[in-house]
Design a protein that fits this description.
This protein is of the alpha/beta class and 277 residues long. The chain has helices spanning 13-24, 38-48, 74-82, 93-107, 121-127, 165-178, 190-203, 218-230, 264-276, and strands at residues 2-5, 29-31, 51-53, 64-67, 86-89, 111-115, 136-139, 154-159, 181-184, 208-212, 234-237, 253-258. α7 (190-203) runs parallel beside α8 (218-230).
């Protein structure tokens, strides 16, 4: 079995930064999962005693709270800062940027359109920065734009950092057809684009593709959907335990990529398994 890694895969700048912050703050806790990768969260808990708060009400006084990579809603941050806790913000700077754009543009009288998943923590956080919550709209498909009633005749749009650029272009096109003034901010982060382009190129030349990452990780799911367009035998796994020997039958060239929050030790364990198939 020839195994080939994508030219760009795995940990991005924002995730590396958040993990370094967590490792520097032993005995702390994160507000929401720090990153979308349970294996790495377990490692931080076991090796650094970094716990997890699922809700604001659980946060104890006098504890260090680390804000997760995807950020949290504005009022939640305000609540934590008002408490007797030390708040360390590990929100990725590429997520802070759309938060600030939404704040600024809505102050300037623009309606806001977010291209993203409305139940994703990053999107919920970014949405919260809008001045008028009734005029911050979230869509996942261009055809949803027709039914939106914007309060202003000028619209500013941003994308969730991990979305596909081609789909964002479709959203922008639909928006321009409907509005006189559209301000477009490309907030898709470079790490995602590089991993996506590399996954696309690799999946075009292999007969089997393995994508490693958390099943709740948006960027990992995007990688998988790109791979499956080019290689029908593309599988999304969390770690080596999810691999099935039958996937490798009659295959000779296996491609490997990993989401932006997949630690290298998980990737190495998968590689080791495949080499033995
Ligand atoms: Fe940040 Fe992009 Fe990673 S938004 S967390 S650098 S995928």
């Amino acid at each position: 079995m020839k195994v080939e890694l994508a030219t760009s895969y795995g940990f991005c700048f924002g995730v590396k930064r958040a993990i370094e912050i967590a490792e520097k703050h032993k005995n702390s806790a994160t507000m929401g999962p720090l990153i979308h990768n349970q294996n790495e969260i377990d490692r931080l808990e076991n090796d650094y005693n970094v716990g997890l708060y699922k809700s604001l009400e659980d946060v104890k006084d006098n504890q260090t709270v680390i804000i997760r990579t995807h950020g949290i809603p504005k009022n939640d941050l305000k609540f934590l800062r008002a408490k007797d806790t030390k708040v360390i913000n590990a929100t990725c700077p590429f997520v802070t940027t759309p938060q600030q754009i939404v704040k600024k543009m809505s102050k300037e009288g623009y309606s806001i359109l977010i291209f993203g998943d409305n139940d994703h923590p990053e999107v919920k956080g970014v949405q919260s920065y809008g001045e008028d919550q009734d005029d911050v709209h979230i869509v996942i498909n261009p055809n949803e734009i027709d039914s939106i009633k914007f309060k202003h005749d000028k619209v500013a749009t941003i994308a969730q950092t991990t979305k596909k650029k081609e789909k964002y272009l479709e959203i922008v096109n639909a928006l321009i057809l409907k509005n006189k003034e559209v301000r477009v901010f490309n907030t898709i982060c470079d790490a995602t684009l590089e991993n996506q382009d590399a996954a696309k190129a690799l999946s075009q030349k292999v007969d089997l593709m393995i994508v490693i990452g958390g099943k709740n990780s948006s960027n990992t799911k995007q990688l998988h959907s790109i791979c499956i367009e080019n290689c029908k035998d593309s599988y999304l796994i969390e770690n080596e335990k999810d691999l099935k020997p039958q996937w490798f039958k009659n295959k000779s060239h296996c491609g490997l990529t990993a989401g932006a929050s997949t630690p290298d030790w998980v990737i190495q364990a998968v590689l080791k398994y495949i080499e033995k198939v």
